[in-house]
Write a structure and sequence with these properties.
Layout: E1 7-11, H1 16-27, E2 31-36, H2 39-51, E3 56-60, H3 66-80, E4 85-88, H4 103-131, E5 135-140, H5 153-173, E6 178-185, H6 191-199, H7 203-211, H8 222-233, E7 244-247
Parallel strand pairs: 1-2, 1-4, 2-3, 4-5, 5-6, 6-7
């Protein structure tokens, strides 16, 4: 067991990479609080963890609402007594180019992807500091924090902010034994990938165009990202802090 007696709050945990992390962390001994707007799938994932002998609680949460964030962390404390690990995975992947993105859309994407992650970090860190045994925070950047693309303008901006914010948070929380890192996934086969392909007007053609950019000639799997996430939140990565791990099948190189 790599996460014995740990309590992990994972946002965006109902589907895709978030779901894979919830299952992986639970299998390594962590109690999981799944935070997501998708109540149906979130409850299913929590039940799957419980069927496998793990501990899990689903809490409905819109990461764009501060009151939801506070309620989620309160539920984690009430049910499991602490928060040792926070993973900020929830995001809005708006597929629009610069000239078609409204100021309102830009603001909304940053509110969910950046402000939500900031508030979750701030409030979870307060709980970790009060308990006095450190912790681990993992934010999700993206390969789009490194390279450009024709669309996804607001998403690009938000993920660049996440990468920089992670470094700043790592310095701020270092005295308290709280490590803060980020992962920059490439193109991973998730429901969000298929949504983005449909946004092009033809899902099959969109997926084909995405695949053409992949050096490995395949998409990543959520489980592959979850494996790296597990390392970064575990004590095995105790000397890793303020870093961004790129997990993209060589896409950015």
């Amino acid at each position: 067991m790599r996460l014995p007696d740990k309590v992990a709050v994972i946002t965006g945990a109902a589907n895709g990479i978030g779901r894979a992390m919830a299952l992986r962390f639970a299998g390594e001994g962590a109690s999981i609080v799944l935070a997501d707007k998708d109540t149906t799938q979130g409850e299913r994932t929590a039940e799957e963890i419980r069927r496998q002998g793990g501990q899990a609680l689903f809490h409905a949460c819109d990461v764009g609402r501060e009151e939801d964030i506070r309620a989620t962390l309160s539920a984690a404390q009430e049910r499991f007594g602490s928060v040792d690990i926070l993973v900020n995975d929830a995001a809005w992947q708006l597929n629009k180019p610069l000239l078609e993105t409204s100021a309102e859309e830009f603001s909304q994407v940053l509110n969910v992807n950046v402000t939500g992650s900031f508030i979750f970090m701030r409030e979870a860190a307060k709980l970790m500091i009060a308990r006095g045994r450190g912790g681990a925070i993992l934010n999700f950047a993206s390969s789009f924090a490194i390279v450009g693309s024709p669309g996804y303008f607001a998403y690009h901006a938000s993920k660049g902010a996440i990468a920089s914010m992670t470094r700043a948070a790592a310095i701020a929380l270092l005295p308290y034994g709280i490590r803060v890192n980020s992962i920059a996934p490439g193109t991973v086969d998730t429901p969000g990938l298929h949504d983005g392909a449909r946004d092009t007007g033809d899902e099959a053609r969109g997926l084909q165009s995405f695949m053409a950019l992949q050096p490995m000639k395949r998409f990543g799997r959520p489980e592959e990202i979850a494996n790296v996430a597990l390392l970064l939140v575990s004590d095995e990565a105790s000397f890793v802090d303020g870093s961004m791990w790129v997990v993209d099948g060589a896409y950015t190189i």
